[in-house]
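User: Here's a structure from my thesis project, written as structure tokens. My advisor, Dr. K., wants to see whether a designed sequence matches the one we expressed. Can you design one independently, without my sequence as a hint?
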């Protein structure tokens, strides 16, 4: 019985620990909706992350519809989070980040087509992340997002599909260092598909491995260098979140022993970049 349970858990973890998708499908152009019609209508092969954020700037409430379909009978693993509708872009981005990290390991098995529909009031923002992992990596999916009614607009795949590459950085916090800055979404880091760069690197994970040489209490600060921004990150599994127009304390954490700690974050919709998370040795800092 124990061997069977071990095999089942191993098989389950192998089946549903899907990691990161191969591509990012970015739907934010146009960000603001002024008329009915299609906001995105493209085809993509393999696994992908649909990252979308749109603001209803019409004078009336309307429906945002997201459809993922295929001409084939396609089974997919998917995880999804949504935030909004709400009038505050920063709030929507913050909630989306919190929900993303809370549900990252929750993957569902389903069949295409998939469809979602939200009523969005005027001046409200809706954002979402849908990760799709087709059973067959060569399967082609159609992603269609529209407001109220679809239109016949033609979309260039090159403007919306990008390779998904986690940005990984490693640094060492030496004894006596007062502060350590982790910069998020510098423009020179933006992913390029050979034709266009992914604006803001939205939806791309940033993974920082920080080697602590000194134990003790540390404080965390967030600075919105590029303008108002939200920030959600995990530090050794604990989630921190904040939004600010300038600089703000996020929280504190303890380093009981020397060694590596991992911080993971990603650029959020409605936020301006670059931004900075600063690690500060608590005993030498006065706010």
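Assistant: Designed independently from the structure alone:
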């Amino acid at each position: 019985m124990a061997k069977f349970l071990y095999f089942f858990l191993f098989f389950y973890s192998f089946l549903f620990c899907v990691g990161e998708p191969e591509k990012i499908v970015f739907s934010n152009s146009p960000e603001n909706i002024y008329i009915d019609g299609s906001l995105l209508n493209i085809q993509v092969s393999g696994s992908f992350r649909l990252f979308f954020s749109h603001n209803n700037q019409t004078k009336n409430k309307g429906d945002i519809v997201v459809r993922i379909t295929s001409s084939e009978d396609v089974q997919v693993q998917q995880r999804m989070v949504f935030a909004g509708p709400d009038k505050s872009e920063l709030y929507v981005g913050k909630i989306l980040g919190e929900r993303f990290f809370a549900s990252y390991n929750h993957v569902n098995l389903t069949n295409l087509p998939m469809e979602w529909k939200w009523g969005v009031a005027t001046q409200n923002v809706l954002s979402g992340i849908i990760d799709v992992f087709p059973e067959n990596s060569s399967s082609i999916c159609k992603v269609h997002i529209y407001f109220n009614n679809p239109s016949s607009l033609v979309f260039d795949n090159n403007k919306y599909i990008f390779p998904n590459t986690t940005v990984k950085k490693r640094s060492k916090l030496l004894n006596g260092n007062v502060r350590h800055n982790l910069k998020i979404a510098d423009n020179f880091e933006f992913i390029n598909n050979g034709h266009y760069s992914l604006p803001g690197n939205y939806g791309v994970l940033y993974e920082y491995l920080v080697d602590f040489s000194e134990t003790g209490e540390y404080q965390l600060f967030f600075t919105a260098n590029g303008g108002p921004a939200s920030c959600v990150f995990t530090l050794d599994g604990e989630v921190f979140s904040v939004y600010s127009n300038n600089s703000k304390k996020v929280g504190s954490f303890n380093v009981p022993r020397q060694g590596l700690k991992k911080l993971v974050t990603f650029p959020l919709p409605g936020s301006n970049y670059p931004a900075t998370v600063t690690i500060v040795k608590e005993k030498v800092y006065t706010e």
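When you compare it with your expressed construct, this may help: The mean pLDDT is 91.
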